[in-house]
Amino acid sequence: MNIHEYQAKALLRDYGAPVSDGRVVLTPHDAKTAAGELDGPLWVVKAQIHAGGRGKGAFKEAAAGEKGGVRLAKSVEEAAEEARKMLGHTLVTHQTGPAGKQVNRIYIEDGSGIETELYLALLVDRQTSRISFVCSTEGGMDIEEVAESTPEKILSFSVDPATGYQPFHGRRIAFSLGLTGKQVKQCVALMGNLYRAFTEKDMEMLEINPLIVTDSGDLKCLDAKVGFDGNALYRQPDILELRDETEEDSKELAASKFDLNYIALDGEIGCMVNGAGLAMATMDIIKLFGAEPANFLDVGGGATKEKVTEAFKIITSDPNVKGILVNIFGGIMRCDVIAEGVIAAVKEVGLQVPLVVRLEGTNVEMGKEIINGSGLAVIAADNLSDAAEKIVKAVKG
Ligand code: GDP
Ligand code: MN
């Protein structure tokens, strides 16, 4: 689960991290009041969407002006004006995809004078099963680009969970970032606080880009991007409250309410599969036959008819879906339950695209009978490659 920058900064502030004073606003009217509460003489007006690259992004609507989603202002009036221009408009960044995201919240901050922009992140390193620090002198840039062109400018190391964070970790970061004097002490404290926030709040990712040295020589977190482990949210009620459902893919949101493992993708073949491994294999084989999957969907082992119906509805609600492939290996899951769910869903939402069904395993004959007796135009398939070939052919001709 991701949160907005202003929420992440409030959280980090609670952990003692240096961030600017700021106010979040939903309307242009509040923008002026909020900007007036900050000292100036520089204000930063920042679009709050769950995507990075806002500064270099661009709005779709001309009314939003030429500038991106992070704007500097020199007066309260100018700050309010920039907020007004951005609110309600669609910001496109390299992370939003071409559709962009509507800006419904604006964060107005006290502007900082910047001496240097640095990069810092904490993440769960799956290779070492530890929390890793990643830092670089190349802040404010796309870290993927830095990793590609100048990997030697990135320092990364993991922390032994048995000892936890130690001051030498912070000093190592400070020296690699070229920090001096009081900044070293600040860095050691800041890294400790960030590590504590990361572990206590079950974060998956914490990215400060840029971490800056201000014109007065102090460290400050100028941006903050935080993602939490969805599996730990049950024990993080205060974090769950920060969830902004309007930022999430509506299909993924619906799926999470029904406990379905669903990830929206860009392709044209909707997939309904049981088991993550089989779902991956199904996506692979769709690609092998020359098409792209529209989603990853594992309905799980113990899916009910209602769950299958819901899954089918989610798949068909995607306008990019030009065909559906149901691929079920019934072990714990029974083929007749899947068949009933598919029929119920089709009766409810209709079937505008070709549907290929491959059933195998428990109660497979019953499942096939249910589908054959339904009068639906379902294309039956016998195995995985047969199924993939048939749906790709039905869609691409
Ligand atoms: P992002 O583009 O979504 O990553 O948004 P950031 O919060 O990282 O802002 C983008 C850029 O705007 C930063 O790299 C800075 O160069 C600039 N910026 C952000 N806040 C300030 C500020 O307080 N003062 C100044 N001078 N520049 C800022
Ligand atoms: Mn940033």
Would you give an account of this structure?
By secondary structure, this protein is α+β, with helices and mostly antiparallel strands. The protein has 3 domains: 21-110, Dna Ligase, domain 1 (2-Layer Sandwich); 114-240, D-amino Acid Aminotransferase, Chain A, domain 1 (2-Layer Sandwich), CATH 3.30.470; 250-396, Rossmann fold, CATH 3.40.50. The protein has 13 helices and 19 strands. The strands form 5 sheets. Strands 8, 9, 10, 11, 12 and 13 form a 6-stranded antiparallel β-sheet that branches. Helix 2 (28-36) packs antiparallel against helix 3 (76-86). The longest helix is centred in the middle third of the chain and has 19 residues, at 182-200. The two termini are 39 Å apart. The structure holds guanosine-5'-diphosphate and manganese (II) ion.
Number of helical regions: 13
Return the CATH class of the largest domain.
Alpha Beta
Biggest sheet character? 6 strands, antiparallel
Bound molecules: guanosine-5'-diphosphate, manganese (II) ion
User: What fold name goes in the CATH topology slot of the largest domain?
Assistant: Rossmann fold
Helical content, roughly? Answer: 25-40%
Query: Regions with pLDDT < 50 over 5+ consecutive residues?
Result: none
Roughly how many Å apart are the termini?
39 Å
Q: What is the total tally of β strands?
A: 19
Question: Into how many domains do the coordinates divide?
Answer: 3
Shape: elongated
For this structure, what is the CATH homologous superfamily of the largest domain? Succinyl-CoA synthetase domains
Name the beta content range: 25-35%
Mean pLDDT: 93
* Radius of gyration, CA atoms, in whole angstroms: 25 Å
